[in-house]
Write a structure and sequence with these properties.
Number of helices: 5
Shape: extended
Number of strands: 2
Largest sheet: 2 strands, antiparallel
Distance between the termini: 13 Å
Structural class: mainly alpha
Strand content: under 5%
Radius of gyration: 19 Å
Helix content: 40-55%
Oligomer: single chain
Length: 125
């Protein structure tokens, strides 16, 4: 059984399949992601100026990390810790410091702990 958005428990096979398909369609969609980037030029990539290279090479700030977390789709696929972005967004006061330290440490050292970037995808049939 699965409970739908209205709180009703479903047992019908077809309804369960439809609900699962809709879940994964939404999970891998751009529905709750802000479209804040411009489309790529059909002519290809532009060469970066020295100023732009300097900006890209500048150390990240705590505010930039917080902004990036807030810009993530709230209900997108969870990482190996099983937490979706909505957890970090709603609990930023509690977890923001450790998330920020983790990200800044990665940018400082270039070292990402084993399994950090793993993802688990499970499809139920």
């Amino acid at each position: 059984m699965l409970r739908n958005a209205e709180g009703t428990w479903l047992t019908d096979t077809q309804a369960l399949e439809s609900m699962a398909v809709e879940y994964y369609r939404r999970l891998y969609s751009l529905e709750d992601v802000d479209q804040i980037v411009e489309k790529l030029s059909p002519e290809g990539f532009m060469e970066l100026t020295q100023r732009e290279i300097g900006i890209l090479n500048a150390p990240s700030t705590e505010e930039e990390i917080a902004t990036a977390v807030r810009a993530m789709g709230r209900f997108k696929a969870p990482g190996p810790d099983s937490y979706r972005p909505v957890f970090y967004q709603r609990c930023w006061e509690e977890v923001g410091g450790s998330v920020t330290r983790f990200v800044l440490d990665f940018f400082r050292t270039g070292v990402l702990l084993p399994n950090t970037n793993d993802a688990i995808v499970v499809l139920l049939a």
